[in-house]
Amino acid sequence: MSHLDHFELYSVAIITLLAVISPGPDFAMVSKISLLKGRQAGVLCAFGISTAISVHLAYTLLGLGIVFANNLWVLNTLRYVGAMYLIWLGVSALWPDIRSRLFKQGSLSAPNSKAEKISNSHSAFWSGFACNALNPKTMLFIVSLFSQVISTDTSLLMELSYGAYIALVHFIWFAIVATLLTTSHIQQKSAFLKDWIERVSGVLLMGFGIKFLISH
């Protein structure tokens, strides 16, 4: 492997790590689901994010990424849809508390635990998937990486290897976040703060959504 190839490899590795660990909607989503629904749901959310990364990679490798990035209507559509989704998630997180205060509703009977676990699993995966798939910044990150950092002379096998690495890093990082947030020590403390965790995560998700909506 040439020196240029090594430079490309290290660049992809470092840029990906920095992009993954930077706070954003994915981090807020994994944190919320892990703290409120447990480790398994948090890891499933991480897997959903990683799967969405694979979707971004697929259309980028097919050459559609640059087409999307160069068409303003595509970016705006993705930005608006992603923003509205995050705002909807934020409102949904805040709504139970608002509803209980407005209508003075009592506690509802607990749902069947087995059905609830299945629902939580599906919800956790698709929440992570949608959060990342509808994030225009993720699309631009993938497209920029493959168009500006990775050489056009790079083989398809190497590009696929980069893609697998990017998806894997996303999964590992957010699985670690989910694991750390569901240790017994943190869970004992968060058990008393579940309502506030729901509220704060709702506000953060709404904030990211509004930021997407007004950004240019």
TrEMBL record:
| GO cellular component assignments | plasma membrane
Keywords noted in UniProt: Cell membrane, Membrane, Transmembrane, Transmembrane helix
- Its name, as the record gives it, is Threonine/homoserine/homoserine lactone efflux protein
Q: Does this entry carry the keyword Lyase?
A: no
**Superkingdom of this protein's organism:** Bacteria
**InterPro entries from the UniProt entry:** LeuE-type (IPR001123)
Gene Ontology MF, one: amino acid transmembrane transporter activity
Q: Which organism is it from?
A: Marinomonas aquiplantarum
How does it sit in the bilayer?
Answer: Multi-pass membrane protein
Q: State the compartments where it is located.
A: Cell membrane
Residue intervals passing through the bilayer: 12-30, 42-68, 80-98, 124-150, 162-184, 196-214
- Pfam families named among the record's database cross-references: LysE
